[in-house]
## 1
Amino acid sequence: MNVLLIEPDNCRHDFISQIVPHSAVSIIHADSSHACIEISRQEEIDLIILDCRSSDTDWIGVVNEIRLTRMKRIPVLCLSAPHEEVDLRARMGGVIDDYILTPCSGLQFINSMNFWLGRKAESDFQKKIQVGNFSINLSEERVFLNGNEVHMPRKEYELLAFLFQNVGRIVSRQLMSMAVWGRPISDSSRTLDTHIYRLRKERGISSKNGLRLRSVYIHGYRLDEIGLNNSHS
């Protein structure tokens, strides 16, 4: 399935490509109205995500031309800051199907994307993930440790879900911040570190449960699944 991301720069494309866990979903970037129309002529498009910051572009005409080219009503999501939503709804009329208010967490973004792709039932993202003694049901947003449900604040859950989808990979502090809080993190902020500490000390993300969450100097963090007889946390 192809998602056409229309934005003037590449900042969101790189982020979205890393947080989207579907091997069957491709994110195609277009930096102009001309580029997105050309892409739509060459590729099957299942969803359009549109950044409407360029107010001098006739986005209604662009969307209608893409739909005419593909001969179907492709759903369109508009990225919008809260203070822009009312104006955009007035300008775009019935052309836009939904709005994603930014900044938003990676989990919120993927849930919106999944809904409009119609993949809620069969999506890999919705399946259960088993890591060490933990299992997480991403469709129900529930975490279990040795079969017992673990309750935690929303942001801790989103951070844990993101780490569980990236086991064995080094993930940067900035990517983690974007995925959970929807914005870059400052060098002086300890918010991420505090949440990491709680996952280790209060939620059982440690070697006794078959996991090691470690800091990788300069790069970020890495969660690994290890043998349960490993005594190092």
## 2
Amino acid sequence: MKFQVSIEKQSDGTYIAYNTNVDGLSLIGVGNTVNEAKADFFNSMKEVAETYDEGEKIPQCLKADPVFKFDLASLFEYYSVLNVSAFAKFVGINDSLMRQYKRGNTYISESQLKKIEDGIHTIGKEFASLRLV
């Protein structure tokens, strides 16, 4: 079992990473950047695993690579190579609205989130299949 970990930008501008799918085991990581929050989360995994006595079975999720989910602010901070305005145009969302989504200034509907996620997956598939000459 893998940790599903959400990464979100907090109101103070810092980032938090926390697991969402393992009952009885809650870990967090925080930092000024997404990378710092992820590193702190990995450190929390390591520290919790070290608390188990020899012979005790360490939960498998502490040995596996987490699966990260991002809010939009965290996504664009972590993947800074993505230009918010260009990406908005690519997925067919007004660039001003996309910047508001990124800042967390406005509500994002499920259909808009799906449109954004589908756009990310499309780009990923295209990058994965392209070859340079």
## 3
Amino acid sequence: MSPRQPKNDNSRKGSSSIARRSLLERRPSGTRAQKKRFLILCEGETEERYFQGMRTRGGPVLDVINPKVDHVNVVVEAHRRRCLDDYDDGDEVWCVLDTELDRGLADRILAKAGGTIRLALSTPCFDFWLLLHREDRRAPFQTAGDVEKALKRALPGWSKGSTKFADFRDGVDDACRRARAVASEKKDHMRNPSTSVWRLVEAIRGSAGGGR
């Protein structure tokens, strides 16, 4: 018998090159391979617009999604996307949600998140986080609608559909400081009013090389 000839490995080269192309498509040079990635699931348009506006050329990758489902299912969708998408151990998955002054709802959200999904909760609602960019507020609100009215007084012309991060950028440091001060008074996600959105915002800003 003649000695076995080595197989032509063109097929292997072809398949490996396709795999490499696929990997490169998923991890563009200078972005995915080098930058931290945040998956941020929001329950509303206001939150979605705010975090989309935080994207910067030199900052981390922000995947901002509004799945348009109820609070608990936002967390369910976060678990699903974390498992299916190409997220590394150093990446972070967050859900930005309102408690609606409903402790039972907040407890269900916390239980569903477990220790895997990070939560940025606001009581009564995300609009309180926006209000803190403009003023320091400690008095409780009766409803989420009352927060919206207060924000419209602080920022005339604002509406949920017109939210732009640019309108709040100059007040981010103040908002983080004020939110931390509220949180330190009573470590309870149901404190009215309160918000832990500052944790997510500071994580994003810190991942941009310490820039602001």
## 4
Amino acid sequence: MTSPDPAASPVAPTASAWNVPNGLTVLRIIMVPLFLWLLLTQSGDSEPHRWWAAVVFAVASLTDWLDGELARRRELVTNFGKVADPIADKALMGSALIGLSSLGELPWWVTVVILVRELGITGLRFWVIRRGVIAASKGGKLKTMLQAIGLLLLILPLTGLLHSLGLWIMYAAVVVTVVTGIDYVFQALRLRRATGGGS
């Protein structure tokens, strides 16, 4: 979830950082170490841990959607949420990418491309944060959905067609990730120029 464009949906003046959407964001961050531990535990029969890792990942991903819906519907979009929510998303997705690649279940080049893009866009957001927020695009939301579905299929202890499907979904996610990343760069440059920002 990425906060909506403030030009179209301004932050409510009474919105406090102490609210349910931000609490869900913090919860998602707290769940990341638990998810990683479950995913990387390989002693004995690791299959139950993989199922539990998938459950934690799915619940954490659900909070990503839920906090955005609550923030918009109840006008609880805050500056804290604008910063913390993308960080929570990238911590969850990044841990899944690195964990799966370290287990040999996802090519490292996929992880590197996605992480470079995500870290770069996070840097761009901070670069222009005083001048505005880079709004989420439909492509960005599609990217997030593809990554979540593909990673979930790979986290589950599946074999055969379903495991291969997870890989192909991740390959599609890479394409959307790169395309939307380029679009975000142009958005940031336009925002800087429109507000008179220098380099």
